[in-house]
Amino acid sequence: MRLRRLGVGLAVLGLMAPACGGDDGGGQQTLEEESDEITPGDYEGETLDVWIMQGTNPDATPFFDQVSSAFTEQTGADLNVQFVEWANAYDKFTTGIAGGELPDVAEVGTTWTPGFADAGGLVDLTDRIEQAGLTDDVVPELLDTGELDGALYGMPWYSGVRSIVYRTDILAKANVQPPASWDELADACAALKAAEPDMVPFPIAGGSEYGVDPFIWGAGGEIASESGGQWTATLDSQESREGISYYTGLATDGDCSTPQASTWDETDLSEAFSAGDAAMIIAGSWTPKALIEANPDLAGKIGVFPIPGPDGGLSPSFLGGSHMGIFNTTDEDKLELAWHFVEMMTTGEFAKQWAQQTGFFPPESSQLEQMEAADDPLVSPFVTQVLEAGATVPVTPAYSKIQGNATMTAMLNSILTGKASVEEATATATQEMNDVFANG
């Protein structure tokens, strides 16, 4: 297994104050020595409050009805699940951490977990994760995304990755095989353009940072590097510029894209694909299922291949997802109950069911390897991308500020619209990033 770890972007934490602890009124709680195994009825009359992000599973209510029944049967406690919109979740968490009004357990995006932990919001789960033997099977780099200063504050629940989704019928008509190198990707665009002149072969979306990242990493570049606790942007390195030049050149110098795509984001890519206007797009592992549900006529016409490397192999792609975390405001006498729920959700049958229903992946290597071996054409290529070429963005709170400033997408847009050369645009982006890194 080879999964490239480049760090994890964190959310901006300026509004957050350290949260209150459990019964002691403050301080960081830690789940240390494991108590006796929970038996039915141990928590009769208790309620565990849980926040789950809305939209990942379009119909999550039946799933959590099943989880709630199993949870009550195993513990005696009730489960109170509140669904929270992703768009509102960050503000809801930061306000809750500042005011001490939080659930016992919540789904937390992997890019937020270390920051919430740094603000004192989350319980240290290190000992319990290790005692349960969960470090033996979970993809190690997914565990890393929940780490702060050597401690684990989130247990991976599910993950997703981006690869290339394509129309099997269109490529077959053009006699094009899924590309296995960058040269083959460019050649495929030319062949598709000739065969289907009214279709965009491979739109280069100027509003999608996660589209260009694989080509930066594939060329051997980095977004930023860390030394002695200080981060430095490296978009102006020879390797990074090579990857950016190739990717944007597919639009500016090749036959792949359309000028309109200079402002597109991932939603626009999916809409173009659904409308029959795009032959190949960079899309998430959750996308094929959603595309077919919305457009039944696409069933049997969609394929997936991992993002190719320059001369073969794979280019790393951003690996993200969600953790289950226990908040530091949870009563001490409910910590074991909270952990029971976390373990129930992130391992075994419920983790597998969630993955099947959402198009995301369970965190366990053994389950991922089984999914890869099943050779589902809409699943296995994404799993291969996770296991062999997943990556994450710089692990510093400053990076979320950079994302908030749209530095990467502004760079892309300026290149795609001809306002700046690759050298000029990467120099500007590098300076903007370094200003944020220097000033926090």
Unreliable segments of 5+ consecutive residues: 1-26
CATH class of the largest domain: Alpha Beta
How many structural domains in the coordinates? 2
| Count of DSSP H/I helices | 18
Q: CATH topology of the largest domain, anyone?
A: D-Maltodextrin-Binding Protein, domain 2
**What proportion of the residues form beta strands (DSSP E)?**
15-25%
Structural class, please?
alpha/beta
Q: How many DSSP-defined strands? A: 12
CATH architecture of the largest domain: 3-Layer(aba) Sandwich
Principal-axis shape? globular
What profile does the largest beta sheet have?
8 strands, mixed
Kindly provide the radius of gyration, computed on alpha-carbon positions and rounded to a whole number of angstroms.
22 Å
Mean pLDDT: 89
In oligomeric terms, what are we looking at?
single chain
| Span of the ends, CA to CA | 35 Å
Provide the descriptors you would attach to this structure in a database record:
42% helix; D-Maltodextrin-Binding Protein, domain 2; two-stranded antiparallel sheet; globular; 440 residues; disordered N terminus; alpha/beta; eight-stranded mixed β-sheet; 12 strands
How do the helices and strands line up, and which of them pair or pack?
Elements: E1 47-54, H1 60-75, E2 78-85, H2 86-99, E3 105-109, H3 113-118, H4 126-131, H5 140-144, E4 147-148, E5 151-152, E6 155-167, H6 168-173, H7 182-195, H8 209-218, E7 224-227, E8 230-233, H9 238-252, H10 266-274, E9 280-284, H11 287-294, E10 302-305, E11 317-326, H12 335-346, H13 348-358, H14 365-373, H15 380-389, E12 390-391, H16 397-404, H17 407-416, H18 422-439
Parallel strand pairs: 1-2, 1-3, 11-12
Antiparallel strand pairs: 3-11, 4-5, 6-9, 6-10, 6-11, 7-8
Helix pairs in contact: 8-9, 14-15, 16-18, 17-18
